[in-house]
Amino acid sequence: MKEIKISSDMIEKAHIKSKEMGPLKNSILKGDGNIAGFIGEQIALWYLGGTWENTYSYDIILPDGKKVDVKTKRTYTKPRPHYDCSISSSSWNVRYTTKQRCDMYAFVRVMKDYSVGWYLGSMDREEYLKKATFWKKGDIDPSNNFTVRADCYNVKIEDLDDARTWT
Description:
The chain is an alpha+beta fold. It has helices at residues 8-21, 34-48, 125-131; strands spanning 2-5, 51-52, 60-61, 67-75, 84-88, 104-111, 116-124, 133-135, 140-141, 146-147, 152-156. It has three helices and eleven strands. The mean pLDDT is 86.
């Protein structure tokens, strides 16, 4: 996990992109998370390199051509290894493959006051599909007493490919 200070330039770019896009269909937060999402994309771009594309299926194209979809959560606290990285089930079809055509997912957390963010790690899309645990809206995760707000698939931060390289 890598901590990154969020700059005013990152926030400004996120506001511009958020206004251009408007609320996403099936958004858990009804568009309220767009700014955090765009900040998360910039954090992943800073860490991974590549070009910022921001399409429905992916957000970044790496120098080797791999397409990365960035998933961002807002937080009040520094993430811990046992916290979840989630993908809404609205991104998946009935055969448990994603509708989004990316090669991998990158996960980011952004402090709700936009002061700091964390690049958590990444995982190959196919590996995520195999390892993820399904949670139904209303389920209570006994590991943290969180009530799930929407059907989703989760993996732990500590299970991400590059999460173990950070101290």
